[in-house]
Every structure is written in structure tokens, then in C-alpha cells.
Design brief:
7-stranded mixed beta sheet; 5-stranded mixed beta sheet; 32% helix
Length: 501
């Protein structure tokens, strides 16, 4: 006789057998409410339900009663986002319009923000956190599409997904597919990272999203805010100002300038085919970093720029020319705004190679250039130049505009710069959330010819300087390490292993 094939039960089915009749009744009602709040395709609905089931299993493993689990995942956190059809679309902000035009060059402007928790991430709860968070950021819940004159963002009503962090940082996103995400959320042990196509947002806007996602994830774990209102209320209606293109707010100036620069020297070392070749994190005590800057009568940004110039001078074989470091400038400090879209410009600090001798010699000039070039006047001139260039290209078809735009703009942050220093400043989270987090970091995607790009973010007592490398030559980071150590800053170095080229 043939033996009957045993039918194995899924973990979720086994979980159901542990519930009481009242709990099963509550769960049945819960599924009905979820279904009424979701009009996605049948496939997407099944995946969303599977997310909920995985979260229930995760809650059970954590010892959370089913009633409390259902309350934390209540349908009010879904809102009407998944129940309503997609109707919105967003024209690109003025700073974003160049980014998709560079994609044919094999280049995609992507940056990464990461938070490091004190405990391993629970993926099922992170997925639910993203499901509940994305509705509050409608300009992120979009896909990139081509219009006749410009790319634009079209609302994508879909299940937005997390993924394990298994690849190299800041790799291009597959935005050409219908409904594809223009950002990715990843996890690895204690780390959660969000990578954004720069078309969506800048570092400030991206950090608002990461803080909201972090807050929602910890809420699902049972951590409640001591100060409601200090982060976006995910169940509130999105404010129109949060998705505004703020470049029209620039002061009217007689001049429109800031883009035209001559080429800068590049550090030596063969360019890697892998992008990036390696990412390094210099973790420093923030008080020690501030003390080193104060000891040289400078700000942290000016001080680090001096060290980057000195390390860059050491890492090039050139004997003449100029080095230039790009410094992004957050326009919200001049024009207060809640927008989470791009609202940043940049300036370039430029020094002749022969003048780069020691920090004390170059710091006065660095500080002078920063004060002048990152001023409201200079940034307003650049914003006006941006608007004029966008206006000049406005009615040119996209298939003609792409090569023309690359000629006008050049490779932003590339040939006219030797390096970049983007400082996001100090990130603060409300109590008691900060007690669950160790640190944060911020990684820039690599440019075409720059051998390194640097970015800084400070959380708690840790300032993390991240270096995205495009060459195996270690001269730059080794010299930078020695310079910082010589100023009394102890450094813990972390990061990725070198990529196989």
C-alpha cells in the first residue's frame, strides 16, 4: 500500500494552533480590516498579508501577546494609501533634473544613510515599519518616468520592500522598470541602510525619512516617544510644503553664477571598475574632533577640509595645478523649509597645489572661501543660474536635451572637483529612541574620476567620516588617518573589504 504523503504545516499555521478562540476571532476581524484597506493587485495583497504573518511570528518570538501585536499593526497605520488609486505625479525639482540625464553614462547619483542599532534588526518588523512609513512620504512612493521634455515622478501604489544588504554600497537602482522603487531599504545584522536616488531628495530629506523609519520600527518593538511631534507623525496628512520645489524662493540677484569652473587635479591611483572599490568609516569622538578644530581656531568643516587637502596633496603625483573640494550647502539654513526634496547647492574650495603645506597655513584661506562661496548671496546666484539653465532647456525634447544638458552642466562633482566633503551635521533623536542606537553613517556614491568622496555625520558622541574609494591606492586614507591622529583624535576604522576589480 502506498503511504499517504504527509502535509507539513507552515510556521504561521502552527502559530494559529497556539491561539485561543477569542484571539482567533480578533485575528479574523483584523484580516477583514486589512483587506478593506488594500486594493492592490491580488499578488501584492498576498505579499502584504505574508508580511503581516511574518510580523505576527516575530512578535510571538519576542513574547508579545497577539492582542498587543495586532494593536501595534492596526489598520490606522495603513491609512488610505493602499486603498486609493495612484493619481499624483511630481515634476522634478530644479536640482534633480540633471540626475536622470547622467544615467546613460553608467553613472547614477545614489547616497546611503545608515543607522546602527544595539540589537540585531528584526526584518519582519522593519518591513512593517516601511509599509507604515512610506505613506507619509508621497514623493518617495514614486517611480521615475520619462516625459517628452523632462523626467518626472509618478506615484506608485505598491508594496514597498526591504532587502538584505548583500551588495556593495550605492549601486545603481533599476528605475527603468514600471513601478520600480527609487530608493532601497536594507538590513544587515544591527544596521539599517536607506539608499536614495538623488532625484528624490538630498541628505537632509533622506535623514528625515530614516528618522521616521527608525521611530516606527522602534514603536513596533514597543518603544514609545517621550516627545511626540519631534519626528513626523506618520498617521497625519502630508504637508504640501514637504514636497515643494523650493528653488523659486531664491533671492533675485543681478548675477547668476557658480557653475563654471576649470578642471581640478585628481588624486593618483588607477580607477577601479568596481564602484566603489571600498568604503571606509573613520569613527571619532565628536568632542575630540571639535577640540582639534577649536585648537586651530576653525570650524569642524574647515578643519576637515584642511586635512583632506593635505591628504589629497600627498596622494597625487602632480606637481602643479589646483585641487578643489566640493562642499554641499543646505539651503534650508537661508530659506527655512520643511521640504524633503532636494534643496541644496554646493560651492568649491580651491587651492593651488604649492600652497597646500600645513593646516595652519591653509585654514585662513579655506575659511575665507567658505564664508564667501557658501554665503546666501553666492548660493542665491547659483540657484538663479540653475533656474535659468533649466528654463533654457525647458522646451527641448528629452532625447536632444540629455546630451546638451551634460555639455552645459558637465559632470557635477566630478572633473571640476578633486574630492567632496558633505557634512550632515549632528543628528538628534528624541528620548528614549537614542538609547537604542549606537551610531549613524552617511556614504556618497562615487563619481566618474574622483578617487574619493567624503561625508560626515555625528550622532551622540560619535562623528563618522566615511570615505568612498574609487582606487586601490591607500595613500589618501592612510595620510588622513595619520593627520587626524597627530591632532589627538583617536580613530576606529571600519568598513567594507576591497572589491574584486
Amino acid at each position: 500500500m502506498k503511504q499517504k504523503k504527509k502535509i507539513s504545516m507552515s510556521p504561521y499555521d502552527l502559530y494559529l494552533h497556539t491561539l485561543s478562540t477569542p484571539e482567533l476571532t480578533a485575528l479574523s476581524s483584523f484580516w477583514e480590516e486589512v483587506d478593506s484597506h488594500c486594493t492592490l493587485s491580488k499578488k501584492e495583497k498576498l505579499r502584504l498579508r505574508a508580511d503581516y504573518e511574518s510580523a505576527l511570528l516575530a512578535f510571538a518570538a519576542l513574547g508579545v501577546p497577539v492582542g498587543a501585536a495586532l494593536a501595534r499593526m492596526g489598520v490606522r497605520h495603513l491609512g488610505g494609501f493602499y486603498a486609493r488609486p495612484a493619481v499624483l505625479w511630481y515634476p522634478l525639482d530644479d536640482a534633480a533634473k540633471i540626475y536622470p540625464l547622467s544615467m546613460k553614462q553608467g553613472q547614477m547619483a545614489v547616497f546611503r544613510l545608515s543607522v546602527y542599532f544595539k540589537e540585531d534588526v528584526v526584518p519582519a518588523l522593519l518591513q512593517m515599519a516601511l509599509t507604515f512609513t512610506i505613506k507619509r512620504f508621497p514623493s518617495f512612493a514614486t517611480t521615475v518616468k520619462k516625459g517628452f521634455f523632462w523626467h518626472y515622478l509618478d506615484t506608485a501604489k505598491r508594496r514597498f520592500v526591504i532587502e538584505p544588504d548583500t551588495g556593495y554600497p550605492c549601486r545603481p537602482l533599476k528605475v527603468g522598470r514600471s513601478g520600480s522603487q527609487s530608493f532601497r531599504v536594507m538590513y544587515f545584522h544591527k544596521r539599517v541602510s536607506v539608499e536614495f536616488f538623488h532625484i528624490l531628495t538630498d541628505g537632509t530629506g533622506g535623514m528625515v525619512f530614516l528618522k521616521a523609519l527608525t521611530t516606527e520600527y522602534l514603536r513596533l518593538l514597543g518603544v514609545e516617544l517621550a516627545e511626540p511631534g519631534s519626528v513626523p507623525d506618520l498617521d497625519a496628512v502630508s504637508d504640501a510644503e514637504e514636497t515643494a520645489n523650493e528653488f523659486d524662493r531664491a533671492d533675485q540677484t543681478e548675477k547668476s553664477a557658480g557653475f563654471m569652473e576649470k578642471s581640478a587635479l585628481q588624486m593618483s591611483g588607477s580607477l577601479s571598475r568596481a564602484r566603489p572599490y571600498r568604503v571606509l568609516h573613520f569613527k571619532m569622538d565628536s568632542d575630540a574632533l571639535k577640540a582639534a578644530a577649536k585648537g586651530k581656531s576653525s570650524t569642524v568643516t574647515s578643519y576637515l577640509l584642511s586635512q583632506l587637502f593635505l591628504a589629497g596633496r600627498y596622494a597625487t603625483d602632480e606637481l602643479q595645478g589646483e585641487m578643489s573640494i566640493q562642499v554641499p550647502v543646505n539651503m534650508r539654513k537661508f530659506y527655512p523649509s520643511k521640504t524633503v526634496r532636494n534643496f541644496a547647492m554646493y560651492c568649491g574650495v580651491r587651492l593651488p597645489l604649492q600652497r597646500i603645506t600645513k593646516a595652519e597655513d591653509i585654514l585662513p584661506e579655506i575659511s575665507r572661501q567658505l564664508e564667501e562661496k557658501a554665503s546666501r548671496q553666492a548660493m542665491s546666484e547659483m540657484m538663479n543660474a540653475t533656474r535659468k539653465m533649466v528654463g533654457a532647456l525647458r522646451f527641448i525634447p528629452l532625447f536632444i536635451k540629455a546630451p546638451a544638458a551634460r555639455m552645459v552642466y558637465g559632470f557635477l562633482g566630478d572633473k571640476i572637483f578633486s574630492n567632496t566633503l558633505s557634512n550632515l551635521g549632528v543628528v538628534q533623536l528624541p528620548a528614549p529612541l537614542d538609547g537604542y542606537i549606537d551610531s549613524m553613517d552617511f556614504v556618497l556614491g562615487t563619481a566618474l574620476t574622483n578617487r574619493a568622496g567624503c561625508s560626515l555625520v555625528t550622532f551622540g558622541h560619535t562623528a563618522t567620516l566615511s570615505i568612498a574609494k574609487m582606487t586601490a591606492d591607500p595613500s589618501f586614507e592612510e595620510r588622513l588617518y595619520d593627520l587626524l591622529q597627530a591632532d589627538g583624535i583617536d580613530i576606529t576604522v571600519e568598513g567594507s573589504a576591497p572589491c574584486e576589480d
